[in-house]
Write a structure and sequence with these properties.
This protein has 415 residues and is of the alpha+beta class. The chain has two domains: 146 residues, Jelly Rolls; 148 residues, Jelly Rolls. It is built from nine helices and 24 strands. The radius of gyration is 27 Å and the shape is elongated. The N terminus is likely disordered.
Length: 415
């Protein structure tokens, strides 16, 4: 049995605990128990005496000591081509990150490929659609659409291509030093090392069937390669117009281009903080399953707080240094660091921002398994909600809310 005095003592102690908890949950450090290095008081609290890679740890300061606003646990949203094994051939190489390597990335898998001048990614096709951005040099692409209409084009740095699932195509490095590019497939399980190759099909078809199919003697195929070529060294192709003429053969050309000059296109949003360029089915007609945004952020600027309502975002960091926080229900919030060659991933509808934490421009491309690019800006939503309602939610006066950007700027400068 508790006496009245005992009950009063317990109530008083509870009030003190509640008051202390309310005091500890403060601006920039909202959670109980409090999180972040700012809370470390004991000697040696922040030391890490165990075995470690100092060089690797320095690349991820936000993982070493997350901001005090991070909370909970979320799936890892970082991967990288930098530590993905390369498959090297005479003529180029490739490396990939699929859902088997990067569990969160269920909608998109990625490939980083290099082709020498004249290097050929052999004639092939995929069970998934292929989207790509050229990050270095130039490449000649060929493709045949479902109506039997051919297309040949040269793709340069900053340009895209898109091939629908099942569309047969080839890639070849041109110029003085070939090319490098990043491919995205609209399926996280798609595997660059397991594609449908024309050399494989020839080698595994009886010669008499090849003879009947092509209307020539079986001996014609006596010297075909018995193992697939995948990537091999060829001669640098000649004039583009000559190649286009050679493939026409009394058929119409494909009605829409399979390439798009994203890097040199007019920005959808631009300010002194950077720019955003978008390519989707509204301006890149053939890209029916993949949309993309190429984002450039000046030092100190941020890609504003937003989310994407129609698809997950697969990110490839082209240059610079970034820090991204992703917010989910729970609440859960996780901050990670990204460098050139890294991959980020944000699930559909999860809030996030990307900050340029380097001293040079940050550039990355966001890729979405969707026909259209869609985003919702946090500031745009709040400035198009009755101010009194927002003020009551956030305990911020209406005059201050009136100063917030109301045009979904996309990028915000260093404050």
């Amino acid at each position: 049995m508790f006496s009245r005095r005992d009950m009063l003592a317990v109530s008083a102690a509870g009030a003190i605990v509640t008051a202390n908890a309310a005091h500890a949950a403060s601006f920039g450090n909202p959670d109980q128990p409090p999180q972040g290095a700012i809370n470390a008081k004991a000697p040696g609290n922040l030391r890490d005496p165990g075995p470690q890679s100092e060089a690797l740890g320095k690349q991820f300061p936000s993982a070493q000591f997350p901001p005090a606003t991070d909370i909970g646990g979320m799936p890892m949203d970082w991967a990288s081509f930098n530590n993905a094994p390369k498959r090297v051939q005479n003529g180029g190489w490739a490396r990939q990150v699929t859902v088997e390597d990067f569990a969160i990335s269920k909608e998109i898998s990625g490939v980083n490929m290099r082709l020498t001048a004249g290097g050929i990614r052999e004639l092939h096709w995929h069970q998934a659609a292929e989207w790509a951005i050229m990050t270095y040099g130039s490449c000649r692409v060929t493709v045949l659409d479902a109506a039997g209409q051919p297309y040949v084009a040269d793709v340069n740095e900053g340009d895209l291509w898109y091939f629908p699932a099942g569309a047969p195509h080839s890639l070849q490095g041109i110029g003085s030093d070939g090319c490098e590019f990043v491919i995205c497939f609209d399926d996280g399980h798609a595997n660059e090392f397991n594609t449908l190759l024309v050399s494989d099909w020839f080698a595994h078809t009886p010669p008499e069937i090849l003879a009947k199919n092509f209307g020539v003697p079986a001996e014609t195929f006596a010297k075909i390669p018995l193992q697939n070529l995948w990537i091999f060294q060829g001669t640098v192709p000649g004039d583009l117009l000559a190649d286009r003429a050679a493939v026409s053969k009394n058929v119409a050309a494909a009605p829409y281009p399979f390439v798009f000059p994203l890097g040199s296109s007019r920005p959808n949003k631009e300010s002194r903080t950077g720019n955003i360029r978008v390519a989707d089915s509204t301006n890149f007609n053939v890209a029916r399953t993949v949309a993309a945004a190429l984002v450039t952020v000046r030092p100190g600027g941020i890609r504003e707080m937003h989310w994407h309502p129609n698809a997950d975002e697969w990110q490839y960091y082209i240059k610079g240094k970034a820090r991204m926080t992703v917010f989910d229900t729970g609440p859960n919030a996780m901050t990670m660091d990204f460098n050139a060659g890294d991959i980020g991933y944000v699930r559909k509808n999860l809030g996030h921002y990307v900050e340029n934490v380097g001293d040079t421009d940050l550039q990355f491309v966001g890729v979405f398994r969707a026909p259209r690019y869609e985003e919702i800006s946090l500031s745009n939503w709040l400035t198009h909600t009755p101010p009194a309602l927002v003020a009551q939610h956030l305990n911020i006066d209406e005059a201050t809310i009136a100063k917030w950007p109301d045009n979904a700027p996309g990028l915000m400068p260093k404050s």
